[in-house]
Amino acid sequence: MLRSGWLTTGTEAEAFEAELSEFLGGPEVVSTSSCTAALEIALASLALEPGARVGVPTWTFPASALAAVRAGADVVLLDVEPTTLNLSSESLEAAFAEGLDAVVGVHFGGVPLPAEVREFCDSAGVPLVEDAAHAFGATDDRGPVGGAGRFTCFSFYATKNLTSGEGGALATTDPEVASFARCYRLHGLGEGSVDRYRPGSLDTPDVAVPGIKGNLPDVLAALGRSQLARFSALQARRRHAAVRYRERLGDVEDLEVVPADACVGSADHLLVVLLPEGTDRSHVRMQLSERGIGSSVHFPPLHRLSWFHDHAAVGPSGVAGAESMADRVLSLPLHPGLTDGDVDRVVDVLVEDLP
Length: 355
Ligand SMILES: Cc1ncc(COP(=O)(O)O)c(C=O)c1O
Prior knowledge:
Elements: H1 11-24, E1 28-32, H2 35-45, E2 53-57, H3 62-70, E3 74-78, H4 89-98, E4 102-106, H5 115-124, E5 128-131, E6 139-140, E7 143-144, E8 152-155, E9 168-172, H6 175-184, H7 218-229, H8 231-249, E10 256-258, E11 271-274, H9 281-290, H10 306-311, E12 313-314, H11 320-326, E13 329-332, H12 340-353
Parallel strand pairs: 2-3, 2-4, 3-12, 4-5, 5-8
Antiparallel strand pairs: 1-9, 6-7, 8-9, 10-11, 11-13
Pyridoxal-5'-phosphate (PLP) is lined by residues 34-36, 60-61, 63-64, 106, 131, 133-134, 155, 157, 168.
């Protein structure tokens, strides 16, 4: 690939898009530099009026909401179901009553959003942008997540199930959204602007929309392609580790895995546990770290982060579900390289440190 002399977006990215489309069952796929870029493109394509209201679960990575901010919208933070940490249908319904112009739904940890969330959006005629940063490889009642939606945004960041180091994609069943995305991801210079340095190109640049620099270079697309070729094997190893965690953690008193029951269609992106009430999470994380075990918190909810606290509204039904979980969740290591022995060791160290 490197010897071809073509490093930026070109034939590798095109081939990656075609392979992703095949994997997802045929939607159009536009590769991007990140999921953040895909979210920004999706929100921009909606041409929201300034001050439009976009509902976003408070339990997510900031990028899900910042894409709405970049589109000139106001963010309305919605609650999540404590059982799954996915968007709560009740919270969404209450927010619809006050008016929403779009919704960003997050398939948290790889667990697909409930069909009810899509149905609410459909019946209200409100576009749903699916943040599937965690959910490449997940399936729901429609088939693969990303196969049937109008806006599904994937991340291929270093920690994701399918990675190209950095990268992302927008999958869509709508050809107009796809052609908007191809134009918008490269400054709005036009759909064919990726070809502008090819021999024989007589492209005369024009800007149709004020786009972003959000294309995926071929160097990274090649990494993505090699990962995609091994994806089912990588997923099987992830699933194996997730099952073992559940088996081992099932007997530990006062400790729960979220969601409690394994979800058949999950992409198994995260392994989140709920620590016993009152546990000093920082102390537990320090103890794990001292034994060489990384851990993480997915996520500090957005309503607790300074900018959102000051600038975003909270939906009419509040965020009590998220608050009840915010200080107790902990993500344990989950990746295809984990052996059974690794999982056992993480669980043993964790249990030793619990009160
Ligand atoms: C839920 C969620 N959405 C969006 C993103 C942004 O992804 P990227 O780093 O590819 O822009 C992340 C990143 O971790 C995420 O967790």
